[in-house]
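Reopening this one. Same input as before:
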Amino acid sequence: MSTELIEALRDKLVQLEKMRHNLEYSHNKIMPWWRVDANFDDWSEDRLESLAAFKGRFAEFQDHLASAMKLIANIESRDTRQFTHVLNYMEQLNLLESMQEWMAVRDLRNAATHDYSQSEEVKAMHFHRLLQNTHYLFETLDKLLRFSATAYPEK
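Same output, byte for byte:
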């Protein structure tokens, strides 16, 4: 086991905890006023800015979760050339319930970063699904933290 990779994982997990705080802040800021049936044109610039920050933080957080998973697979000398191999291994470790669920949230994340000119209804449903899946990302981080603390305890 590479101590260098384990240290990189520990650093990544610290970074993820900070990112979680930021994403949680954005999520909690939006939830009191969020309405899936509201018109985006009726919202203030502050609310639109909050939605944009949330969307970016969601995407970044999932990217870094994926990076942490890849680090674990590397530490364990698993094949990481295809990310589906990493996800399959995360399932085996019970860090993910299902690869399909992760991929569905990943597709949602990808749509968030490439959403340019969709209808109001599509945009609203997209944000609604991002908001609904935020806790899934938090739960995934919690599992990674517990696994890492057990598998790679500090001396």
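So the earlier flakiness isn't reproducible anymore. For the record, The CA atoms of residues 87 and 100 lie 9 Å apart.
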